[in-house]
Structure formats: structure tokens, C-alpha cells
């Protein structure tokens, strides 16, 4: 009596088809996310492993005047899904006037994630203005 291997083969084909469908759906979502991200005003500057206080000098970055914040104007991020006027004034102030705040981080190494993350015990952000 010869046994048929068809049921096992059908399961393998079905699993491969499901895997292909999952990969296709993930690829489509990523494509859409990349297309939406093109409209977000992000900086083209990258640092790699080390930033440091001398980063602008090492990279030859020159600013017109002193840099006050993470961004010049939160309104640059206005979109159908983000209304900068609805942002809390303290949050807007922080991003536009970051230099006025005393920031301190305590970073711990997390060997399982192969990265450093801010510790939950990081110092609070305090405004110096």
C-alpha cells in the first residue's frame, strides 16, 4: 500500500502562500509609510556612533547665529494631521527654545538590546528661563 504525501504537501504550500501574503502586506505598508514620510521636514544630518559637542565643527556645519532649539518653528510641521496651534505652549517653547532648558541624561547600557537607552531615573527637564 502506497501512502500519499499530498496532505502534508498541501499544508506546506498553504503556509508558503500565507507567508508570501504576509510579506506582501508588510511591503505595501512600508511603501506607504515611506511615501508619507517624504512630506515630513526631517534633517538630512546623521551622526553615526558619536555626536558630541564638537559634532557641528567636525561636520563643517555652520549656523546663521546661535541655534536656540531643536527646530526654528513648530509651524513647519503643520499638516492635515497636525495643528501646531493646538500644541501646548510649554511643549512648543521646549522645541523652539531647547537651549534655555537644562537637560541631563543618565544612560545605561542594555546588553540584550545592544543599545544605550535613557534610564528611567534620568534627570527631569528644567527650564532655566
TrEMBL record:
This is Uncharacterized protein. It comes from Halorussus caseinilyticus.
Amino acid at each position: 500500500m502506497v501512502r500519499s504525501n499530498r496532505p502534508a504537501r498541501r499544508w506546506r504550500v498553504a503556509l508558503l502562500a500565507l507567508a508570501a501574503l504576509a510579506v506582501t502586506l508588510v511591503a505595501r505598508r512600508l511603501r506607504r509609510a515611506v511615501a508619507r514620510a517624504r512630506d515630513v521636514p526631517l534633517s538630512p544630518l546623521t551622526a553615526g556612533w558619536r555626536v558630541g559637542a564638537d559634532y557641528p565643527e567636525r561636520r563643517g556645519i555652520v549656523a546663521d547665529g546661535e541655534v536656540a532649539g531643536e527646530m526654528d518653528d513648530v509651524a513647519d510641521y503643520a499638516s492635515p494631521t497636525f495643528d501646531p496651534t493646538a500644541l501646548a505652549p510649554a511643549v512648543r517653547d521646549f522645541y523652539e527654545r531647547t537651549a534655555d532648558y537644562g537637560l541631563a541624561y543618565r544612560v545605561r547600557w542594555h546588553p540584550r538590546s545592544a543599545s544605550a537607552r535613557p534610564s528611567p531615573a534620568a534627570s527631569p527637564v528644567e527650564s532655566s528661563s
